[in-house]
Amino acid sequence: MTHYADLTPYTYFKNAADYVLNSTGLPTLNVGWLENGQPFTTGETSKEFQEKLREFCQPEYKVIATRGFHVCEFFCNEDARSNAEIRVLGTKAIYATPELIQHYIIAHHYQPPDEFIEAVLNSGHPSSAEYVNLRKIVEGRNS
Predict the structure, then answer these.
(1) Are 88 and 123 in contact (CB under 8 A)?
(2) pTM of the entire structure?
(3) CA angle 28-31-38, nearest 5°?
(4) What is the spatial distance between Cα 43 and Cα 5, in angstroms, rounded to a whole number?
(5) % pLDDT > 90, the chain
(6) Residue 9: beta bridge partners?
(7) How many whole angstroms separate alpha carbon 113 and alpha carbon 2?
């Protein structure tokens, strides 16, 4: 997987980010694009945050699924793999993260930026109409 520093502009699928910005007025920012050999912040996160994030990582709420998949590069004994991304809507940005973020947090103690944690905790459920619309926008379907 490609490494992107937290809170930098999302460019992995640039057309999707541009479409989101044009449709919502909010930039899309990277969170959790970790790579072996690149430093990342560690720490503990609350169970409440972890449980709410787990909701976003369910298969029906993922976006931009690819044909291939990426496995965790941190040499853990888990079969952690990813082939999609999730989106979390904040007040100032939409956060793009690989679905492996949940694994990184639990297995490797990755600590996402506070503004991402706050966005997850203050967010509606990923099944809400707001998120259904956001996923359509990300995927380039506006109807």
Answers:
(1) yes
(2) 0.94
(3) 130
(4) 17
(5) 79
(6) 29
(7) 19
Residue ranges of domains in the chain:
14-138
Written in H, E and C, the secondary structure of 68-129 is: CCEECCCCCCCCCEECCEEEEECCCCEEEEECCHHHHHHHHCECCCHHHHHHHHHCCCCCCH
Dist. CA 43–CA 129, nearest whole Å:
33
Q: Give the SS3 label for residue 30.
A: strand
pLDDT at 142: 54
How far from 42 is each of 39, 51, 75, CA to CA, in Å? Answer: 9, 18, 17
Mean pLDDT within 20-35: 95
Tens-digit pLDDT profile for residues 75-118: 887 788 888 999 999 999 999 999 999 999 999 999 999 999 99
